[in-house]
Amino acid sequence: MRILVATDAWHPQVNGVVRTLAMMADAVTALGSEVSFLTPDSFRTVAMPSYRDLRLALPWPGKVARLIAQACPDSIHIATEGPIGFLVRRYCRKHGLPFTTSFHTRFPEYVSARAPVPESWVWATLRWFHRESKAVMAATPALAEELRARGFPNVVLWPRGVDTALFRPRPVDLCLPDPIFLCVGRVAVEKNLEAFLALDLPGTKVIVGDGPARAALERRFPDAVFLGALQGEALASVYASADVFVFPSRTDTFGLVLLEALASGLPVAAFPVAGPRDVIGDAAVGVLSEDLREACLAALEIPRRACVEFAAGHTWEASARAFLDNMAIFSAPGVADGPAEMAAQDHDRAAGLACPHVS
């Protein structure tokens, strides 16, 4: 199967969506399918007003159509509800092509934290965006159930994985006072970092990540250590150096960093909300409490080995297989011979492009 993934979130952004898509593509390729990406790399971009480090693509329909034809996909997956996602959705609807989508980000909460826009308006837009999707992929059962309750159709599960070869326990010393309480993620208002940084805890608080709130938080909490955005071995080493992973967000749909921390041997301290609750479940690898300080201190008593063993059950291969199973709807009888193929043929002839998958 040749899959085209359309996404507004891509390198050099450092976030869970980008890491998820990149790791999924590697795992899907290892299983014998092909993945290509339609990303902001192909378009002019502008900085987002409230988040200068994030750049928004400015795509146009003609180029989107050419890129889809050049990719020659058997299946199309739209990963984000941004400008690229909207235009690829428009193309698919125009030509009768089926597509799948995924729900990564709670935009209603994020938008309302920055602008006086009712969350109900944003939810209505998201329902419209996903309503024609053949499969709306959600990372956890709780998120899937919430989306169904909000009127989203065709919701299916797409669990996440972790690279245990990279994220693993190892002897690392940051030369900071112990214990080290670590938080990894975007440094922005929706991540609720103040709830962590304001805690009275022993040792050192460490923040890995960057974002629009970093400068203000560094001024307010000078005792915390801000390391900026890290990737690869540098990020894995910081995980391994810490004692507890603190996840103060109340809005994340999953939190890929939770699996990375657990694979590194870090117990989790978090609020008892959907993201961490779905990842950890009843496993004794974290403490979820409305008293985040109590959770942090109690997590120090959790054996690191238990965390590593828990994370070992979440592989990217299993995640990739679930993704491919969700895409298999395109193999349903009649799809290959229906109006979708004819529309694609018409487009390719008009564009002067040959595609063996649709010709």
Structure description:
Helix 2 packs across helix 3. The protein has helices at residues 16-30, 61-71, 83-95, 107-112, 119-130, 141-149, 193-197, 214-220, 232-241, 256-263, 274-280, 292-299, 304-311, 316-327, 339-351, and strands spanning 2-6, 34-38, 45-48, 51-57, 75-78, 100-102, 136-138, 155-157, 180-184, 204-208, 225-228, 244-247, 268-270, 286-288. The chain has two domains: 2-161 and 317-351, Glycogen Phosphorylase B (Rossmann fold); 180-311, Rossmann fold. A six-stranded parallel sheet has the order 2-1-5-6-7-8, sandwiched between helices. A six-stranded parallel sheet has the order 11-10-9-12-13-14, with helices on both faces. Strands 3-4 form a two-stranded antiparallel ribbon. The chain is an alpha/beta fold and 359 residues long. 40% of the residues lie in helices and 16% in strands.
Search tags:
about 350 residues, six-stranded parallel sheet, alpha/beta, 15 helices, globular, Rossmann fold, 14 strands, about 40% helix
Helix and strand topology:
Layout: E1 2-6, H1 16-30, E2 34-38, E3 45-48, E4 51-57, H2 61-71, E5 75-78, H3 83-95, E6 100-102, H4 107-112, H5 119-130, E7 136-138, H6 141-149, E8 155-157, E9 180-184, H7 193-197, E10 204-208, H8 214-220, E11 225-228, H9 232-241, E12 244-247, H10 256-263, E13 268-270, H11 274-280, E14 286-288, H12 292-299, H13 304-311, H14 316-327, H15 339-351
Parallel strand pairs: 1-2, 1-5, 5-6, 6-7, 7-8, 9-10, 9-12, 10-11, 12-13, 13-14
Antiparallel strand pairs: 3-4
Helix pairs in contact: 1-14, 2-3, 10-13
